[in-house]
Amino acid sequence: MLLSLRRMIHPALVGTFCRSQMPYATASPSSWTKVVSEAEKIVGYPTSFMSLRCLLSDELSNIALHVRKLVGTRHPLISTARGFVYDSRNNLQLRGLVVLLMSKAAGPGKTVDPVLEGDLVSGIYPSQRNLAEITELIHTAFLVHRGIVNIMEVTSSHGSLKDMQFGNKMAVLSGDFLLANASTGLAQLQNTKVVELVSSAIGDLVQGVYYENARTDEEKVTDDILMTNWEKRIFLSHGALLAKSCQGAMQLANHDTEVQEMAFQYGKHMSLAHKLNSDLQPFVAETSCDTMPFCLNSAPVILHQEASGRDVWINQLKKAKVNGKQADYAKLHRIIKTGKGVSSSLDLCRYHGNRALEALRCFPTSEARSTLEKIVYAVTKF
After folding, report:
1. Which residues, at least 6 apart from 289, have a Cβ–Cβ distance to it below 8 Å?
2. For each of the chain's 382 residues, which pLDDT tens digit applies?
3. Which of 108, 291, 340, 349 is deepest in the core (most CB within 10 A)?
4. Which residues pair with 326 in a beta bridge?
5. How crowded is residue 134: how many other Cβ atoms within 10 Å of its Cβ?
6. How open is the CA angle 291-231-354, to the nearest 5 degrees?
7. Strands (E), the chain
8. What is the 8-class DSSP label of residue 236?
């Protein structure tokens, strides 16, 4: 789905030619689809046509590929393509879904104005739905921005340089367009605390992406990165937006600071568990093999380095290099899979999953809370 979004903007935005950019499913397709479908019903959104997953299906993305030929014209199809991304009725993805479920699970705050209770739809305030959509806009904008191609790495096999440069311009402009709409929607919430929270999350995202791209993948593996530092960086780039959006949703319903903190903790630990699950897929998925791409700065690799020792890891890396230059990923895959990094990552994923479940205990028993728990179970099940 996310790659379909990038293709809709421009084919050159599909990735930055980094092995770590490949997407992986976070759970078996059937179980994950079931959980998401159930969640959408609970928060009052349909599960099929109006869903962004449907609008960005492969069939539609094939049509969208031709839309790029109309860029620069006034053809109305350009506005339609933009509407696929920025349409409040079709803008529900994982982060927005979690924000809505958290809003419904918590319900109205103790000090909420009784007049506002009439605005509740499926147990969720309109402002909370708007926040969920804003969260997805910000997330999508950063995905588009991440699709910028490093022109220095472009070869003839990637297409013409002119197309790549045009694709970069589209990535920048399209991402900025989404962020501008998110900022407008954020201001319309008229809640300075929520504006401050989400604004700081955008800053965290920028800082996290900077850490990820500060060096090339090959240079990162020689860094002495501790797992605590890895978690801090991943929280910035993957967890801050969801955690602070969940907290903001509680603020919009006038919940006390304790409830806001628990919502924040759920978003934080669920995001970390989600990223660990993604990092583990090349090593634990049923279809995994030596040739499956993985990032040399992922959790299993870092934990393998910590368990084996830095000197041993550097020696293994040198032996796995072809002609002393490019790393042989198939050989590294076998080395890491036989070490303790994978099992330690599994334990850490379940740890963060349990922390997320603990944060939900302050919320009353309900369908929404149960679905939030099921999302954690789907992410931590291997």
Report:
1. none
2. 333 333 333 333 333 333 333 333 445 555 767 787 788 788 875 433 333 443 444 544 544 554 464 465 443 334 434 544 444 333 346 888 899 999 999 988 877 666 566 678 888 898 998 999 889 888 877 877 776 767 676 666 655 666 667 667 767 777 787 788 889 889 999 999 999 999 999 999 999 888 877 654 555 554 556 788 889 999 999 899 999 999 999 999 999 999 999 999 999 999 999 999 989 988 887 665 656 678 888 899 999 988 888 888 888 888 777 665 677 778 888 888 888 989 999 999 999 999 999 999 999 999 999 999 999 998 898 7
3. 349
4. 322
5. 26
6. 95
7. 321-322, 326-327
8. I
CA atoms within 13 A on the CB side of 70: 15
Q: Under a CB-based contact definition with an 8 Å cutoff, are residues 302 and 230 in contact?
A: yes
Q: Which residues pair with 322 in a beta bridge?
A: 326
Cα–Cα distance for residue pair 356/269, rounded to 1 Å: 5
Closest-CA residue to 152 (of 144, 163, 164, 142): 164
The b/e string for 183-202 (b: 16+ C-beta within 10 A; e otherwise) is bebbeebebeebeebbeebb
Place of tokens 């499956």: 292
How many CB atoms are located within 10 Å of the residue 63 CB?
Answer: 11
Residues in the chain: 382
Name 121's bridge partners: 124
Fill in the amino acid letter for 213.
Answer: N
Listed in sequence order, the residues at least 6 apart from 64 whose beta carbon sits closer than 8 Å to its beta carbon are: 4, 7, 8, 81, 84
CB 9 within 8 A of CB 341: no
